[in-house]
Amino acid sequence: MAIKRKAVKTRQLHPGMVIDQTVTDQFGRALIEKGALLDDFHIEGLMRYGIMEIYIREGEEDPEEEKEIVIPQAVQNVIAKERVEDRARVKLTESVKKRVAEGVQFLYNSTSDPNFAEATDNIAGELMKAITENEAIAVDISALKVSDEYTFKHSVDVSTMSMIIAKKYGMDDQSIREIGIAGLLHDMGKSKIPNEILNKPGKLTDEEFEIMKQHSVYGYHILKEKNTFNERILMGVLQHHEKLNGRGYPLGVPAEKIHLFARTIAMADIYDALVTERPYKKGFSPRDAVEMIMAMTAELDIDVMKSFLGSVILYPVDSIVKLSNGEKAKVVSNNPDYILRPTVVGISSGKVYNLSEDLNCASILIM
């Protein structure tokens, strides 16, 4: 029997159930890890934190579901001929991931520490080094994972992606580093949001959402009081939920008053939020997330969007995809101008599908 995911009211839980989400506190620290066997203590804790519904895991893994894909030699020859390495991507070594994860946890747990600003700059420096060491111009966030805890992972994802977008946009090195700092700290204000709102598995009420919308204001004030972060970092944190059509929050300011740092962080924040699974939603596929962002031209900066689209690798070379014609295929090259449509080789047919340039492939999509 295959594993299934099911939402269950907390009052209906019983010991022995397997939780299928990580429950965190307001600092992003895990209270219950995904995959843990629930006991009475866990269930009582969920009730105490006001978490009224969670996801549990049902069933068992089916070993027949994941079968090794065998590629015929003739098709391997075609793949080798057509294969083009991806653009240089950000790569974090395990030791860097460990330092970054520990550093971000320190930031969110120690907002009043006198070393806060120095620690933030050190983390941004680690990410900057990872970008410059191999002249990275692209990012595959699925390969960045530094933590299972959403707040920490999201902060690093948004920071790294914002830096890559800024580089593509043409910002100087100092600006790239500072936008990395703003990305790391953009959700700092969530430390002041009640746990029952942060961890709520269902849709927030209007009243709860009004409270949640204040996190960017809280974050702005936390940083401003330190007198060590410049205005554009502060604006990146305060305005990362503002929209060009004036319908964002917390202030609903018009386009001309939204700082470039905030416009950039917003792009990374929205993408990462869309593709990440949360207690209250499944993650969208990278393709769907990009298409949704491309439809937000009234809300997001079009030039920043172009830099974002030129910076993200959705289908890394050598990954296996399924085509709308039913065939599985291997990605052999990417076109940065058409990130949704790489060139792939059919595993059973050996056919080359140039999805971005061959008109005969116009009706074929990656599923």
Please give the number of β-strands: 9
Mean pLDDT: 88
Strand content is 5-15%
Gross morphology is: globular
Write down the secondary-structure element order.
EEEEHEHHHHHHHHHHHHEEEE
* Rg (C-alpha, Å): 22 Å
Reported CATH architecture of the largest domain: Orthogonal Bundle
- The helicity comes to 40-55%
Largest sheet: 4 strands, antiparallel
Number of helices: 13
Poorly predicted runs are: none
Strand order, largest beta sheet: 6-7-8-9
Find the structural class using helix and strand composition: alpha+beta
Q: Can you tell me the CATH class of the largest domain?
A: Mainly Alpha
According to CATH, the homologous superfamily of the largest domain is Hypothetical protein af1432
Total individual domains: 3
Give a quick set of tags describing it.
single chain; Molybdopterin biosynthesis moea protein, domain 2; three-stranded antiparallel sheet; 9 strands; alpha+beta; globular; 40% helix; 367 residues; 13 helices; Hypothetical protein af1432; four-stranded antiparallel sheet
3D structure, described in words:
There is one protein chain. The protein is of the alpha+beta class and 367 residues long. The protein folds into three domains: 4-58, Molybdopterin biosynthesis moea protein, domain 2; 73-85 and 317-361, no CATH class; 94-309, Hypothetical protein af1432, CATH 1.10.3210.10. The protein is 40% helix and 10% strand. It is built from 13 helices and nine strands. It has helices spanning 40-48, 73-82, 94-109, 116-133, 150-169, 173-185, 195-198, 206-212, 215-224, 231-238, 260-275, 286-294, 302-309, and strands spanning 4-9, 18-19, 23-24, 30-32, 53-58, 320-322, 328-333, 343-346, 352-354. A four-stranded antiparallel β-sheet has the order 6-7-8-9, covered by helices on one side. Strands 1-5-2 form a three-stranded antiparallel β-sheet, with no helix packed on it. Strand 8 and strand 9 form a beta hairpin. Helix 6 (173-185) crosses helix 10 (231-238). The longest helix is centred in the middle third of the chain and has 20 residues, at 150-169. The model has no long low-confidence stretch (mean pLDDT 88).
